[in-house]
Amino acid sequence: MKLIEMYKIAIEAGIKNDPRSRKDIEQILKDTKEAYDKLDDDKKEFFDPERLWNPYADSRLSFGDPETKIKKVMWGIDVGTGELVLADRLNERGANISAVVSHHPLGLGRIPFPEVMSMQTDMYHSSGIPINIAEGLMDKRIDEVHRAVMASNYNQSVDSAKLLNIPLLNIHTPADNMVQRFLEDMFRKENVKYVGDIIDMLMTLPEYREASKQNSPPEIIAGKKKGRAGKIIFKMTGGTSGPKEIYEKMAQAGIGTAVGMHFPDSHIEEAKKYNINIVVAGHMSSDSLGINLIADLWEKKGVETVPFSGLIRVSRN
After folding, report:
1. 171, CA 20 to 30 Å: which among 55, 100, 280, 294?
2. Is 294 helix (H, G, I), strand (E, B) or coil?
3. Which of 83, 52, 272, 267 lies closest to 170 in space, CA to CA?
4. CB 255 within 8 A of CB 135
5. pLDDT in tens, 22-47
């Protein structure tokens, strides 16, 4: 399979499992195309053409010939120069790694990644929070995260990939969408009464079981095991943590428990203030679940995924 084909499979999987409707995503792409068409020719030079078909600003093919034939990739949660040198060293030993894939944004996907946080607006709205409230809170938080990433050395890993001539891409939100949908579907089929039941259900999945063996199990951070879970909201996608003020609105919308990969201390304090239960499913384990669901699609097309840098590889094929 070609690199670009593999990449597009991941993006399409993200769209298919996006919390928003396909119609909403198609409208976003249409608006982007119209904005591009209105640009002066001299400004079109600075437009990222991938925006015309890829709705995820935090997922990009940052280096490599799109036509490269791919049989084996190394996929890690975080990829830096060290990981790329490792891939190169393994190739010297005959590993035949065709490309390296990162989960977390780098290169072309690093600076604009806060844009994907806007999907949280729709997620909160679908859970009962008024759209105007969700938008108002999210806009402020998106600006805050954007300012924080502006100073990052976004191309450090890409420069290393170029010197080593190793194709490099990252798949972030599409994989996070996969774990979001997977867990929502899984929990929709069960009658979850207590917060502890959430832990028990997560522990039926191999990614969380393996992480637990590595001293990183799912944990209840706010609330108690025998506390009533109430209405559950999953926060597995949408870039990074939203605004802490959202917990007051969750309480008003009747949400009892929030389940996510990780939560800042400020969020935990707010959740406790409004009696919202918080379950930390686990960062590497949850990322691994989403990645595995995409890696399985690649595997069906003949592409092997070699896990490293935190990825717990589990094939469901």
Report:
1. 280
2. helix
3. 83
4. no
5. 999 999 999 999 999 999 999 999 99
Supply 16's token pair: 């298919």
- Give the C-alpha separation, 266 to 252, whole Å: 19
Torsion of the alpha carbons at 140, 142, 147 and 153, rounded to the nearest 10: 170
Burial label for 72, CB within 10 Å (0-12, 13-18, 19+), is middle
Q: What is the rounded distance in angstroms from the CA atom of residue 95 to the CA atom of residue 317?
A: 23
Q: What is the rounded CA–CA span in Å between residue 168 and residue 193?
A: 44
Region of 204 on the Ramachandran plot (φ > 0 left; ψ -120 to 50 alpha; else beta): alpha
> How far apart are the C-alpha atoms of 301 and 71, rounded to whole Å?
9
Phi/psi region, residue 309 (left: phi>0; alpha: psi -120 to 50; beta: rest), is left
CA distances from 23 to 18, 20, 123, 131, 176 (A): 11, 8, 16, 18, 20
Q: With 90 as the cut, is the pLDDT of residue 308 above it?
A: yes
| Lookup result for tokens 């198609």 | 26
Instruction: Indicate left, alpha or beta for 259 from its phi (over 0: left) and psi (-120 to 50: alpha).
Output: beta
Q: Distance between CA 33 and CA 37 in Å, rounded?
A: 6
CA distance 93 to 239: 36
Q: What is the pLDDT of residues 201-244, one digit of tens each?
A: 999 999 999 999 999 999 999 999 999 999 999 999 999 999 99
pLDDT at 157: 98
pLDDT tens readout for residues 279-305: 999 999 999 999 999 999 999 999 999
pLDDT (0 to 100) of residue 142:
95
CA atoms of 278 and 165, how far apart (whole Å): 44
The residues, any chain, with a CB within 8 Å of residue 109's CB and separated by 6 or more, are 57, 58, 59, 60, 62, 170, 172
* Displacement of CA 55 from its chain's centroid (Å): 13
Residue 191 pLDDT exceeds 90: no
Which percentage of the chain shows pLDDT scores above 70? 100
